[in-house]
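User: Please fill in residues for this 400-position structure.
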């Protein structure tokens, strides 16, 4: 009898801090976890399949049907890739401040489908006029805009499906990041192995049309999982991170000429650090009033300082980005000059040579998650070691 009561409690156990899509409390037994994460991963795989289906072979399209020189094409590829890398900042701001992650994913997926349909249409136009180039570049940057909404939300929404206060779900959440990377890298491997062959040997219309169909299927699957998703409840008057951090810099700038002596501040539970002390001016209310949120909290100021501490790390990443960008530009064009024949009548597409990057990741992540992490746990005693390692890109260290 006691066992039956225990099972009943587990089945009726609700999860704190989250609701379903109608705003109702959710049961742990019928929501979240890998059940919901599987739907979310599917849309990520399709999105990465679509994005890299364009990115990996873009230089060959620019130098082929559009007739650009290699230097001009490489420049256009890098400008587009750089723009696509910056737009997730805008997407994250919109999601945190206005739309929420779920709505942002839905809207971004719809924009993606529109962009890919226009991209496919552009490949059907005559290449001797300006109409093809205009429509192509418009749809290309529309793809960049769509992935800017997709990229910052999908993985975070997937992580929301695991309760960090529940031991079993906390372990699953830690493993989620590894398998997330594994699945979308596997999708990338399919892209550079098969889709690039279709683009080079069958045609660009089908080569752009396949990602379009994949995104339609993925959005349908993602929508089917709506009943299983957990939606985080924002705190009262909680601002998004972009709003909080931006407010710190704006307030500190306004109080640039104000000294702390002008503000008889009461004792604080947590004193601000002295590093980047100019941001401490965000704690000052120059008009002598702290009402209506005119000053920032110490935690908000320290959060802004943490962003500044990351700047040197981001700066060093520029070197890696410069080197990595060569794989989809000059390395791919260099592959055109190689003897790529492996079977009679079969030539490996130049862009498919990028598959070695994805293959190394696909092979290593299961080893990392199932062998290296458990061994590391025995030495560190930290059950969440691989969660932090994954979020800090520990696997990339081994790949390099």
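Assistant: Residues filled in for all 400 positions:
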């Amino acid at each position: 009898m006691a066992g039956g009561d225990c099972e009943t409690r587990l089945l009726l156990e609700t999860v704190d801090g989250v609701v379903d899509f109608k705003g109702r409390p959710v049961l742990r037994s019928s929501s979240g976890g890998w059940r919901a994460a599987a739907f979310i991963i599917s849309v990520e795989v399709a999105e990465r399949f679509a994005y890299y289906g364009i990115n990996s072979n873009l230089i060959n399209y620019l130098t082929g049907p559009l007739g650009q020189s290699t230097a001009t094409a490489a420049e256009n590829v890098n400008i587009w890739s750089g723009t696509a890398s910056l737009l997730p900042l805008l997407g994250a701001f919109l999601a945190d401040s206005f739309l929420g992650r779920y709505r942002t994913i839905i809207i971004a997926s719809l924009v993606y489908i529109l962009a890919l349909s226009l991209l496919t249409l552009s490949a059907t136009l005559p290449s001797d006029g300006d109409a093809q180039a205009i429509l192509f570049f418009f749809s290309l940057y529309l793809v960049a805009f769509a992935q800017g909404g997709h990229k910052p939300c999908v993985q975070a929404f997937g992580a929301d499906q695991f309760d960090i206060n529940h031991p079993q779900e906390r372990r699953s959440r830690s493993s989620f990041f590894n398998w997330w990377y594994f699945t979308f890298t596997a999708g990338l491997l399919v892209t550079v192995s098969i889709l690039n062959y279709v683009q080079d040997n069958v045609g660009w219309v089908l080569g752009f049309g396949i990602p379009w169909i994949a995104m339609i299927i993925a959005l349908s699957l993602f929508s089917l999982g709506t009943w299983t998703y957990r939606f985080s409840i924002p705190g009262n008057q909680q601002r998004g991170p972009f709003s909080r951090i931006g407010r710190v810099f704006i307030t500190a700038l306004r109080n640039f000429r104000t000294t702390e002596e002008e503000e008889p501040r009461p004792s604080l539970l947590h004193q601000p650090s002295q590093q980047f002390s100019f941001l401490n001016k965000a704690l000052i209310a120059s008009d002598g009033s702290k009402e209506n949120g005119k000053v920032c909290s110490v935690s908000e100021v320290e959060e802004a300082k943490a962003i500044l501490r990351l700047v040197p790390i981001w700066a060093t990443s520029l070197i890696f980005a410069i080197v990595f960008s060569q794989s989809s530009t000059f390395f791919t064009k260099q592959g055109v000059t190689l003897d790529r024949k492996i079977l009679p009548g079969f030539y490996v597409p130049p862009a498919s040579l990028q598959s070695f990057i994805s293959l190394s990741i696909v092979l290593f992540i299961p080893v990392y998650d199932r062998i290296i992490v458990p061994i590391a746990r025995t030495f560190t005693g930290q059950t969440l070691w691989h969660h932090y390692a994954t979020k800090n890109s520990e696997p990339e260290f081994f790949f390099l």
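For context: The chain is about 65% helix and 5% strand.
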